[in-house]
Fold this protein.
Amino acid sequence: MFDIDLTTLAISIVGIVAFIAPFLIKHQGNKKTTLKIRQQLNEKLLENQLSVQEEEIWRDRYFLGLDKSKNKLIYVQDISKMTLRIIDLEKIFSVSIHETSHHVGDKKNGRNIIDSIHLSIQSKDTSKTLTLEVFNSDYFSDLFGEPVFAKRWKEIIEKQLKKAELVNS
């Protein structure tokens, strides 16, 4: 069998704990931050008499929520500022995804770099278009599923618009 020296075992355990400790500390900090954000969001929603059935916090910056009973979309562009933007879906005609990008390199070997992704919401009053930012390269250097996030919320909003249209018909 193996003869394990007590000193070697102790040094190994200290090394493992020293390696794992920063990850545990970061995880606990993230949990506290998420809990604080949730509490602030819940307070703001209660303040505005909203009950969100579908919601998503993205990158600890953006929040999208849907109050299906009141047909309202709730959007927060910067959670640290916690300014709610409440959109009445009764006044919305359509929603689309809008990406802005720029080309880097030559035409043959270059590539497009996405600068921003927005949900563009067209009001029934055709002169108004609301833009809800879901990605901005000024804040994040890479995409982390934002195209999927934008597509998912476009579908959720469209589904709610169709549902409201059927109820009103």
Q: What stands out?
A: The chain has a mean pLDDT of 89. The chain has one domain: 48-168. The beta strands are 54-58, 62-67, 72-76, 85-88, 92-104, 111-123, 129-136.
